[in-house]
Amino acid sequence: MDGAFVEAAPAKVNLALHITGRRADGYHELESLVVFADVADEIVARPARTDSLTVTGPFATAAGSGEGNLVARALAAFRGRWPEPAGTGLAVELRKNLPVAAGLGGGSADAAAMLRLMARRSAAPIPPAALAEMALHLGADVPACVFSRPCEMRGVGEIIHPLRTFPVTHIVLVNPLLPVVTADVFRRLARRDNPPLPPLPQPLTRPAQLGLWLAETRNDLEPAAIGLLPVIGELIADMAALDGCVLARMSGSGGTVFGLFGSAAQAHQAAHELRRTRHGFWVAAAPVITPRHWQNGASPSGALFARGPVPGWRRLGGRRVVAGVGQGVVSIRCGRVSYSANSERLSLTMASKPRPTVQPRWVCVSTEAPTE
To answer: Which residues of 261-293 are buried (b: 16+ CB within 10 A; e: fewer)?
Structure first.
């Protein structure tokens, strides 16, 4: 696309979601294992005299294109904070391929994609901490969507721990095209002080490990959502009965149900069966985006990034590398990166001892302080 900037906004799926408390301000504390499927909305932006937003695609009407759209809000927030690096106006097209109010983080993923796109085209480095803070102000799910890779999410969504490894899996999504209002689901919760997630296996590399761990977890919003929309329970039963399904569960606050599969063939066959038995429902099959996308040097759709090598890298004891804030962002080649708000620096824990000549080209940033 000549002159166009393109950014994908992959679907967010909560493989497990535990509600562990409620804060004084009314927000709920949660713990969640979040992954992203390689099925996405898409943002296409072209230089223009002024900013504009057009929404296209099968779910354009439900998404809306007014000032309340999270993409428009993300663009306005970025320009308000960094007017010079933001550059000229943009004619933004949001291609809405994912259902709305579906538990897939669609609006949050779209906003995160807009932030990534703006950071990528910026002429000046964008401080990762400030961008992470902006993401949280846009919505609790936006920080995780900025990464769009497997991660543990805690707090109200502001504590993000990207996973270094994740098994190759495939996911099937089915949605009855009936919206579920998140606030209504939370109002119907029987308990808000549920047990936390069990510790994840380290390293998490095999589908069997993931399946055993998931068997000990829940989506605490699922019973309340089924009370509002009973077809969700039917879809979970349908999905669980399909050959090769490791786990069937609701994502987020619903009403999308996912099934986890070990192979692409099983996932696509399951999607075929659901399309045959559930006419008019939205069905998709896709691989789960894994950290391996990053290790291969590619920048997956979830990467929050700046172009070019990171200047000023230095080695500490052969295991830790430090750079100033804003010198680089996202996609990992050789380790896990965390951002420490207190020390205002980026620190990269290397997965293996690097050669002295190696300089990471991209850096991934987390809002969780590094462990020394």
So the answer is: bbeeebbebbbebbbeebeebbbbbbbbbbbeb
